[in-house]
UniProtKB/TrEMBL annotation:
Taxonomy, superkingdom: Bacteria
Gene3D superfamilies: 3.40.190.80, Fructose-1,6-Bisphosphatase, subunit A, domain 1
Xref: Pfam families: Inositol_P
Matches recorded under InterPro entries: Inositol_monophosphatase-like
Organism the protein comes from: Nostoc cf. commune SO-36
Name this protein carries in UniProt: Inositol-1-monophosphatase
Gene, per the UniProt record: suhB
Length: 291
């Protein structure tokens, strides 16, 4: 196998193609027609599958196979893709044998309902930790990226990686996002924060913050029951590189990726400050003790 390219080189190579994918997603959004739903899913967000999901994944797969043919790849639509069988592997490798992951449309339900806060999220994973993540918001003409130990950055879609500015989330709104299955802790936070419960507050007409609100300053924290490598764990990595606090639900350090199952971390607490983290930790601990 050839020498593994650097994570920055992989991002630099993929960025122009991801920008094309972003323009495609933006163009298609008003025209989108849903394909048949993906099997039995636990919530309506993950049940939504669109033409854009499949097309964007196919684009990234073609670029990867043509440029980094030895790289590992796992995309959300791997079951629908004709390219999956051509990749060397779809799982985590040993140290230095990177796995690229892709959520071609994160927030498919937001996308289908015409909201602006959907994303294309591509990550590069090592055996123990994320090495890099790029999250593009096509409708907002912005993208965020982070490199392991190298900080987080923000730029418009016209910018190269080098032109992006360090991501500084200085005045996050006092709002907390509760992911699926975490609504039981809402009451213990409402005296200090605006609590947004994704399961009950989602509206097809009025846009509410999704998890990417941690990067835009629309949220000062989030509680996620299961941190999928493809989306929530990837966004949490960017937040962590921007100086936020990210732990498991009990306040522990995040486990090495290779110890996790089903491409997913245990629950995540994502907080802008120590005080917010303490509030979230207290709420989740009181919830667990009440179970």
């Amino acid at each position: 196998m050839s020498t593994t390219p650097t994570t920055r080189f992989i991002l630099e190579t993929l960025l122009p193609h991801l920008k094309v994918a972003a323009a495609y997603a933006n163009f298609l959004q008003p025209k989108i027609a849903a394909l048949p739903a993906k099997g039995q899913e636990s919530n309506f967000f993950s049940a939504a599958l669109t033409d854009a999901d499949v097309a964007i994944q196919n684009l990234v797969e073609v670029v990867l196979l043509g440029t980094f043919p030895d790289i590992r790849f796992y995309g959300e639509e791997y079951e629908s893709s004709n390219n999956t069988k051509y990749f060397r592997a779809t799982n985590l490798g040993s140290e230095g044998d990177y796995l690229v992951t892709l959520d071609p449309i994160d927030g498919t339900k937001f996308y289908m309902d015409g909201h602006s806060n959907y994303q294309i999220i591509l990550s590069i994973l090592n055996s123990d930790e994320f090495e890099a993540v790029i999250a593009i918001s096509p409708a907002q003409n912005v993208y965020f990226y982070a490199l392991r130990g190298g900080g987080a950055f923000k730029g418009t879609l016209e910018m190269t990686l080098e032109a992006c500015a360090p991501l500084q989330i200085t005045s996050a709104k006092p709002a907390i996002l509760l992911g699926w299955g975490m609504n039981a802790i809402a009451d213990s936070l409402k005296d200090r924060y605006k609590v947004i419960d994704i399961a009950t507050d989602y509206s097809s007409d009025i846009e509410i913050p999704s998890l990417n609100g941690i990067l835009s300053g629309d949220l000062s924290g989030a509680v996620i029951k299961s941190g999928k490598f493809l989306d929530s764990a990837a966004l949490a990595f960017i937040a962590k590189e921007a100086g936020w606090i990210v732990t498991t639900l009990d306040g522990s350090t995040l486990p090495p990726l290779h110890t996790c199952e089903n491409y997913s971390m245990p629950g995540l607490l994502v907080a802008a400050s120590k005080s917010v983290h303490q509030d979230l930790l207290k709420a989740t601990q009181s919830f667990k003790s009440a179970e």
